[in-house]
Amino acid sequence: MTTQDQGADSNAKNWAEKLAALIEKPWVRIAIPVFVTLMALTILHDLSAHVKWSDVQTDIAATSWKLMFFALCWTAFSFVSLSFYDVFAVQSVAGGKVPLPVAGMAGASGYAVSNCLGFSYITGTAIRYRIYASLGLDLGRVAGVIATSWVAFWMGLVLILGVLLTLHPEGISKVMPISETTETIIGLSMLAGLVVLFIWLSSGGRRLAFAGVGFDLPGGRLASLLTLAALGDLFGASMALYVLMPDDLGVGFPYFFTVYVAAIAVGILSHAPGGIGVFEATLIAGLGASGRSDVIAALLLYRVVYTFLPFGIASVSIGVASALTQRRRIGGAATWVYRVIRPIVPMVAAGVAAIAGVILLVSGALPSDSQNLGVLREFLPLSFVEASHLAGSVVGVLLILVSRGLFRKLYRAWAVAMLLMVAGFVASLAKGLDTHEAISMLGTIALLATFRGAFYRVSGASIFRLNVPWLVSVIALLAVIFWVGLFAYSHVQYQNALWWEFAWNGDASRFLRSSLVVAVILGVVAVTSLFGREIPAPARVGIPEAVEKLAMESEDTESQISLTGDKQFLISPDESAFIAYADTGNAIISKGEPVGDETAGQQLIWQLREMADREGKLCAFYSVSTKYLPTFLDLGLSILKIGEVARVPLEDFSLDGKPRKRFRQAKNRAEREGYVFEIIPKEELAPVLPELRQISDRWLEKKAGAEKGFALGGFDDDYLSYFDHAVLRDGETGKIMAFANLFQGGNKSELSLDLMRYEPDSPSFVMDALFAEMMAWGAEQGFHWFSLGAAPFSGIENRQLASIWNKIGGFVYEHGEQFYHFEGLRSFKQKFDPEWSPNYLASPGGLAAPRILYEVNILISGGLRGLTK
Prior knowledge:
The structure is a single chain. The protein is an alpha+beta fold. It has a domain of 122 residues: Aminopeptidase (3-Layer(aba) Sandwich). The strands form two sheets. Strands 3, 4, 5, 6, 7, 8, 9, 10, 11, 12, 13 and 14 form a twelve-stranded mixed β-sheet that branches. The chain has a two-stranded antiparallel ribbon with strand order 1-2. Helix 5 packs antiparallel against helix 6, helix 13 runs antiparallel to helix 14 and helix 17 packs antiparallel against helix 18.
């Protein structure tokens, strides 16, 4: 390869890295879908520029009940087909493990929620995961059910598009501006690929596995049934809209179906809930239906019939079932019903609150009923009505924002949502006697009241803080609602005077003012959500006497890191055990395993996990041994190896031999040059602490770093006062050149150290000499082991069949030297010929594991900046 080629490859790699880094930025992840949404709304606005809201209302009223009945029938047909996705997928992946009615309910309810809220991979997938996991399916089988359902959808879509492209029905060429020959080749290729897939599946025994998670693929018969279910889903959904379209639109079903599929794809890209606004813009543009009020009316009715009605039915059904099963205390056949509906409740409640907010905002964006305003005019002042209109919009946006808190099962979110809906009920009546809106608020209040038991988590974080997916969804939704207002008042000429015009017929002015307030609220929430995360500073807490006693008596010296003062504690009632942990705001993480009685320790592990669940946070146990692994597995946690701990046996300890030559020579040289090793008891430490602090400060300056925490101790007078200290003095001056605090295990089981620092200008052999002296002293005192501490990522098998996390850990260990001397640290400890024992992280599996590791880094180093230092 030439130098020029290498330079080109290097430039391409740099650009790829820059692009990847750019995509990872939160504002970019928001900007792309929001840009798609705004572009679609701009197109939709242009396409409907000559349509009046009154014309749309007239067309909606003129729609016959016969057409509505057909649309309802096709919607039912589509959702029955959707339910069969999961019925057949469960038979393939987990035959006999899940009752088929449960699978059907999971599929139908999951799609009803995801169609309404959007983000099917968060909402619909989460619903089905929680249902199947509650019935005992492991992660592999749950993933198999969901993946099989997705594959079924694509098989049905490929079959329909392949047939359309092959047979060239009338109008399809308008959508695919290519020659008939090319069209036929594409269609036949799609059908041939599908046939090959069916033949491959029919041979039996097919299995898909990735990153240690695998599941059986359906056989030929089940694959055929899944494809039929997909055909029913796609055909029913598209027909529900097609029958509502005006007869004179002049497009056949093949052309309409192709545009319909494209609209769904663009809607998914936008991340708007249900693709609202983007889906409509794509359809109107694709069908060439600009300026037609009857097409907009058909799209609005379709939203009601196919999106909101199934969600409403699912919500009410779940509410009724929840109330009945609770009354009967779930017995017999009602047991699986309760187990199915319980995981769904938070997501349904989030959708209910969001829809209630949308109703209030859309109502505020549309003209008020002049007759109702006339009634209010008789006994209410204009200022009260204006304030009520503004309050209704504020309540609406807050309900949408608080829906994520409901999704996370937060009790405060439920209480706030109930209060907001009461305020929404009052505002609905006070701003225009909108009885339909008020009744919907009452119905929402009643529904959320039945779900009260599902919201048990208590969190200190703001219930209005959103993550990136929710923020994108809310921005897109509010953009659509704002467009609705622009569309409703498109006949009103904009003037600056509209902002301060207060009149009974000033609907446009009220819309502008409420939109501004909503935008301000959304802006504040966006800024605080993206940039306002507060990482709790480690609070210096007093160490309870029980913790001091147990830590100092423990045979595991690592327990003494609990005394650093930056952790909180759970202590058993009889004070026979404790567990130390820290709270990052997103996760509760223990440092090590429980200290003390093992039975009491098991209960503390469950208690910490339950506390994290109540607060809606992740829970993990960092740097644990094999002692409590069964308990961690019972909690449903994944066990990840994060390194190894080195321990040197001190019985018959000697510095003889080639591996320890470096330390033997350092010790001998220190003795020749007059250095003196000394143990300073903790009772005599106070007068020496100022000198030790000066050494520590100069050492930190040389390292250009900062004190660590959580898993490592820093220089703190209270913390260091718990321990004897090993020091190396210059024999001539008496000056201390290096020191280390000593962890001494109970019954002389183990000797170790935490803080080890030295004068930056001291001779190079000082640290090695101190190490050698400490180990020799430990052997003389009768200690059984000397712990050298952990070597991160050491001993992780990076093989072809290893889990993905092992491969990542192995890669970091091999290639992460520029950030941390992983191999060098292990090589240093290996010179003592230690015995290595595994070190684990017990945490939720999947994508939660890297999040936990980042939270641990925050606790230890203060984030990425501290890590690089």
